[in-house]
Amino acid sequence: MPAALVMQSMLSLVEKQRWSTQPFFRSNVREALATVGVLLAIGMSSLTAWPSLSEVIALGRGEESQCLPFRSLEMTTNCPQEDDWVAHLLAHDTRPVDPNTVFLDVGCNTGADAVKYLDLWGRSPGIFQAWHEGLKGEGAIRAGSCQNNQSTWPQRTASSSINPTVICVEPMSANVEVMRGLHHRVLNSSSAFEIVHAAVSDHVGVAAFPSGQVGTEDFGLDVASPVDPAGNARQIQTVEVNVTSVDTLMTARGLSRVDVLSVDTEGHDPLVLVGASRALKTVRLLFFEVHQDLTGSPWSRTSLLSVAENLDDYDLDCFWAGNNGKLQKITGCWTMQDESTHSPIPWANILCVRRGDEWHGALQKYVGAIA
User: Fold this and answer.
1) Cα dist. 253→72, 102, 279, 301, 312 in Å?
2) Are 106 and 210 found together in one domain?
3) What positions does the domain Methyltransferase FkbM occupy (predicted)?
4) Between vectors from CA 317 to CA 52 and to CA 158, what angle results, nearest 5°?
5) Buried-state track 148-171, b at ≥16 Cβ within 10 A, e below 16
6) Which of 43, 55, 85, 170 is the most exposed place for a label (fewest CB within 10 A)?
């Protein structure tokens, strides 16, 4: 079989796989790989250097492959240096900021990241520092947390005269209570900042959620370790909370879009994304965590490859968000072999950006190896 025909067949197969309608799980992937294997066997004699599947995907899009070797994921992407990325994106954003500009923070803990976006995007630069000081005064910054070492945030070069809409969704009652107090004292009860006391999943209902000290970061719908991050034993109690989905939140609040979606739900992120199908059609920037090491969580039974493929169908390119400030590409690069090598993937952070958006181009300067 001529090499060109083999390549054309592979590209056709890859495109068919990309637009599969089965969310998150591709039941026909074995058949696809078997077919590629046959094409390899037939066409090997006519090709001197056979491309990888990721290179085929890149060729199919007319892109130069950005795939780099995946080395250690241990403590290389747990606390990414996102300051420069976000400040760079917002400083080079040509879209006007208005109340329809939405940052949705799912699992916002004590609201630090949400307030950062209000600081950078809104009309009151400097409010993050005041919020951070308020959290310290409440004893809400836990030892070992990423924000424990972060007390400043780069200022936007051109601030807006209009606030965006920032929605902070948090299930733990102690965190919600502290945020409501700071919302009144620091933000003067601004209508641009909304606190929603709820857990988020792929459905609507009620659930028992662990109750802990303010600032606790390792509780989720499926996870509540009897030992805290410092190794101390603790008693776990639960309270009933409402459960909602991202798309339900959008409908309830009449949101036409979500510009930035951040998800940090201690292992529940895959189901949050399943319940965000409408939002993912509009998202420009997406953050979420991988936590396959959390036994019993949705991540413990979900592959990163399946999630990345689904987000690819929404025209989102995903990257490892490195502690060194680099972004290492996952989409079209991460394979089942990588999944097997690094499984279970420990606490790690992913950034995804919409292809064709100006932010996609702006982030290219940060692409590189995270380790």
Assistant:
1) 41, 11, 13, 32, 27
2) yes
3) 166-293
4) 145
5) eebeebeebeeebeebbbbbbbbb
6) 55
pLDDT in tens, 46-105: 443 444 454 455 445 545 467 999 988 888 998 898 888 888 888 888 898 899 999 999
What sign for the dihedral angle of Cα 58, 59, 61, 65?
Answer: positive
Q: Is the dihedral of CA 265, 270, 271, 273 positive or negative?
A: positive
pLDDT in tens, 197-206: 999 999 999 9
CB 309 within 8 A of CB 346: no
Question: For residue range 123-146, what is the model confidence (pLDDT) as tens digits?
Answer: 888 899 899 999 999 888 765 557
Sheet strands side by side (includes 237-244): 199-200, 237-244, 205-211
Which residue has tokens 């972060």?
150
Do the bridges between strand 260-263 and strand 102-106 make them parallel or antiparallel, or are there none, so unpaired?
A: parallel
Q: Same domain, yes or no, for 52 and 183?
A: no
Tokens representing 225? 């370790």
Residue 308 neighbours by CB under 8 Å, 6+ apart: 318, 330, 331, 334
Instruction: Give just the sign of the alpha carbon dihedral 93, 287, 258, 64.
Output: positive
Same domain, 186 and 324: yes
**Residue range(s) defining the domain that contains residue 18:** 3-58
Q: Residue 105 is encoded by which pair of tokens?
A: 């923070």
